[in-house]
Amino acid sequence: MFFGYLRDRRTVLFLLLLLLFIFIVVFALFRIPLPPILYAGALFCVVAVPVAVRDFLWYRRRHHRMAGLCESSMVLPEDLPSAGSLGEQDDQALVLRLCRELEEQQAHALQKQQEMENFYTLWVHQIKTPIAAMSLLLQQNTDSTAPVLRQELFKIERYAELTLEYLRIGSIAADLQAQSCCLSDVVRQAVKKYAPVFIYKKLPIVTENLDRTVISDEKWLVFIIEQLLSNALKYTAAGEIRIWSEYTSEAGTVLHVRDTGIGIRAEDLPRVFERGFTGSVGRMDKRATGLGLYLCDTVARRLCHRLSIASRPGEGTCVSVHFGRQDVEVE
Questions:
Q1: Are 241 and 190 in contact (CB under 8 A)?
Q2: Considering Cα of 39, then 42, then 44, then 47, what sign does the dihedral take?
Q3: Does 39 or 243 have the greater pLDDT score?
Q4: Among residues 297, 304, 279, 303, which one has the least CA distance to residue 289?
Q5: Phi, psi of 240 (to 5 degrees)
Q6: What is the pTM of this model?
Q7: Does the first or last residue of the chain, that is N or C, have fewer Cβ atoms within 10 Å of its Cβ?
Q8: Torsion of CA 221, 227, 230, 236, to 10 degrees
């Protein structure tokens, strides 16, 4: 702090030292007696030292206040310390101008984002009408292609719902409601929704040890399991999909969703929860969006859960939801 003050006042210090040198040379040349010199020096110190101390204290207070503002989460223009010199006034004027421009840009970006969210929300709700109409028509259709068309229509409906959930993910905190959830009920809801796909692909679903209760948000927990089932069904052509839970004193309750699909390469596993990442699977399936596991991981972290994944190419994938130890009671 002190050395920083000296560095900032180096011009004034240089001038003082230069004046002191000039006076010493002049006094020496004119052979002025020592007592007047000492008296003048004492008077100078009586005036200069208090001024220097006051200036240093003001400098230190300003530095501490600016450091506090830098660590603050939000800084308002009126929080800035008062400007002393003309240069500081110019600097503060520039900062205030940049603050105003930033506020305008943020307001414009927020408006554009809100418009985009409103558009996609409206689009999702509007697309549900033709989806429902097509579903009714397909129920009356006995053509051999009807089952295939039903599956494609189901995918369209799921993608529309995924879009809506993606828009809601930013405000999920306001929609959370922690409560006791029975895993068997939650899994049953998700499996029921995908029952037509299980039947169409002739894939058995095996559930075990689901008679456990966890603390979570039932709606969003169902969403996570639905996305995991969607991925499992998408990349599993034969075998089975198995869902079970286990409990240990160290890790708490863990829910596993395992398939016998194509699996994931080891180099892709660390990035599967990143938004938009599709990896080698995305190069094979051009329709992959890379949003499913990203949304699952985001929702799980908001619920204070954790996702993990284990997979081998050709041997399937197992995604686990770690609820942890929940030694609390929900009223």
A1: no
A2: negative
A3: 243
A4: 279
A5: -160, 165
A6: 0.65
A7: C
A8: -100
